[in-house]
Amino acid sequence: MTYSTAGRLPAMKAVWGEQLRVVGLAIRREGALAALALALGSVALIAFSRMPVLQAMVDGEIGELVFDPGEPPWGFFGVLGALLLPLVVWKGERRFGDTPLWSMPVDHRRHALLKVAAGWVWLMAILGAALVWVTLTTLASGGSLGVDEVRLLVLDPAGATAGTPGAVQSVNWTTPWWEWALPFTSATAAYLLASTLVLATRRPLFWAAGLWVAGGVVLGIADFRDIDWIQRVSDFVAWYIGGDSFAWGMSGGREVWTLLPTARMWTASSALWIGLGLVGVLGASSRARNH
User: Fold this and answer.
1) pTM for the whole thing?
2) pLDDT at position 248, please?
3) Starting at the edge strand that comes first in sequence, how are the strands of the sheet with 247-251 ordered?
4) Which of 7, 12, 123, 284 has the most C-beta neighbours closer than 10 Å?
């Protein structure tokens, strides 16, 4: 280091590029394993859909593949990967105590935020590539993209159970455009919330397990006490993370729905969860780490 360069901070562009490179190296092994699993699954699905011999082995139980990103299980895979990604992004890096964050030429808060942002960029790239791959797999297997069907919407659950006329309404449903963006927004929210735990706590897995158990207890109490608003909130959360929450049951061999999602629901849910995640990351990144 010369006198002319001493004390100078690196350019933000250089720091950002280095973070993208470092995070990419950190996730390369897990990314390769995920790509391998996706490729093997694609080969298996195409083989079972195209080869009569393999179809006979499963007695035709594997039907036509339908890729609808707003329906299970597609969205859940992205959310699950997003929840685990921060652990991979920050693996091997001490976040508290005697940590290199305090000796770097970039302050620790900016370093943390750039690292989270770099992880998000890689998440979006991987998720986009995975969705393209699944789309090609679906087409190669002879399946279809999205759905175009008539859904049964329950207007009166008690009347539907008793068979009252007018309790169920038929609604034409086609996969809307925003459902193709839903995996990206739900994965973004999950990644930011998981990053908050990683930045704010020394043992994020412990806290994640505690939150999961607490959520299960609350849902159990809500089900036992029949607390409708908690169950309703649970349905909305389950839907947003790729769960099958609005399916009420079966009627005449057809699935019956209690609610059909809308673009407004998607927009409001995305704003809420991504907003909470951003607030959490900003707050957690400012936490003192020298103790």
Assistant:
1) 0.86
2) 61
3) 168-174, 148-154, 254-257, 247-251
4) 123
